[in-house]
Each structure stands twice: as structure tokens, then as C-alpha cells.
Backbone:
């Protein structure tokens, strides 16, 4: 298998990452399954391997049009690109996690706009557009935002997220820091640690 001549005898192309078009369908090929890929929201199909799963349904439900092309998932035989296209016909372009992210981002952005107006008016009162979403009115908090590439005022927002623990989706409510200028999330080591602790605690409670 380490002989390049042997490998090239059986394969037309060997690449770490590849994009291709076939009969008006677009594909992204990568060894590992990824949660986002070029053209995902326009119907591009991700083809992946690595995980040796017996089926692709779980990842399709979570992330949309992706397919495990390993033999483990296909009766221990190669699968044609036409078969993949046929199996993808009834799979949504976006998955559960994409919908969750989009809903959260729209909700968060709407609140950030309102909160920015409050900050400009020097109000110190927190308002909640949806119960339980904004849970801390620490106006005046500042953090470095890499999107703005400068220190900006931030707010702390509570939102629903899904994490995979040993392949099992665990839903939790996480605390995230949001820039009041651009609306992007800002990584915070303390919050990230507490959020992951919630995830693993919920996983342990579920299986004890």
C-alpha cells in the first residue's frame, strides 16, 4: 500500500480535499465528516468516510446532505455517485443543528440591536424579548472581539445548543458572550468550561 504505483493503478485521483460537479450536482469530498462545507445551503452534497458507521441517517438529520461512502455503510461494496444522488433526493439541505443555529443567531442579533440602543441611551435596565434568553444585564462589560478586532462592549445571552457526546446529541442551554457592535459570539474560556460541564453532567445524569 505504500507503493505509489500500486495506489495509482486503482485510483484516478488522490487528494486531501476535492470539489466536483456531476450532472448538475455539486459535491465536496473529504476524508472526515464536517458540519459545514462549501455550497451546503445550495444543495452541495458532502461525501465522507473515516467514522466506519453503518449508516448516514444520524448525520443527515443533524447536518443535511452528507453521505458516508465507506463500505461499512454500503453493504461492504462501493457505491456509485448516481446511487448517492438518488438517496439524497429526500434529504433536507439543512439539518436540525443548522436550523437551531439560524434561529438562535436571528434571535440573538435582534436582541443585540435593541441592547445596543439601550447602551447608547445609558440605560442600566435589562430587557428580555423572549423569556430566559438574556439573563444578565451587565452593561459596560468589555471583551476583545476578533471580528471587530478591537475591545467592545458585550452582553451575555442564554441560548439552546446541541453537543455530541460519544455520538449522542445532548441539548443544553449555554451562556454565550455577544459583541454589541457586530453581533458575533466571542469565545470566553470561563463560559466555555461551564457550558461543557453542563453537557457532561446532563450526559452522566441520563445514563446513571
Residues:
Amino acid at each position: 500500500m505504500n507503493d505509489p504505483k500500486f495506489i495509482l493503478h486503482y485510483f484516478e485521483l488522490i487528494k486531501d480535499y476535492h470539489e466536483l460537479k456531476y450532472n448538475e450536482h455539486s459535491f465536496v469530498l473529504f476524508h472526515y465528516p464536517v458540519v459545514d462545507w462549501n455550497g451546503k445551503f445550495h444543495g452541495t452534497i458532502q461525501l465522507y468516510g473515516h467514522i466506519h458507521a453503518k449508516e448516514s441517517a444520524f448525520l443527515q438529520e443533524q447536518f443535511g446532505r452528507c453521505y458516508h461512502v465507506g463500505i461499512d455503510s454500503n453493504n461492504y461494496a462501493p457505491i456509485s455517485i448516481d446511487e448517492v444522488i438518488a438517496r439524497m433526493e429526500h434529504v433536507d439541505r439543512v439539518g436540525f443543528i443548522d436550523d437551531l443555529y439560524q434561529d438562535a443567531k436571528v434571535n440573538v442579533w435582534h436582541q443585540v440591536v435593541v441592547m445596543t440602543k439601550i447602551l447608547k441611551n445609558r440605560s442600566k435596565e435589562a430587557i428580555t424579548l423572549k423569556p430566559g434568553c438574556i439573563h444578565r444585564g451587565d452593561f459596560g462589560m468589555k471583551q476583545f472581539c476578533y471580528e471587530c478586532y478591537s475591545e467592545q462592549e458585550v452582553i451575555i445571552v442564554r441560548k439552546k445548543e446541541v453537543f455530541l457526546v460519544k455520538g449522542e446529541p445532548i441539548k443544553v442551554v449555554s451562556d454565550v458572550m455577544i459583541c454589541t457592535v457586530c453581533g458575533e459570539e466571542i469565545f470566553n474560556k470561563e463560559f466555555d468550561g461551564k457550558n461543557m460541564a453542563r453537557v457532561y453532567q446532563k450526559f452522566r445524569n441520563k445514563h446513571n
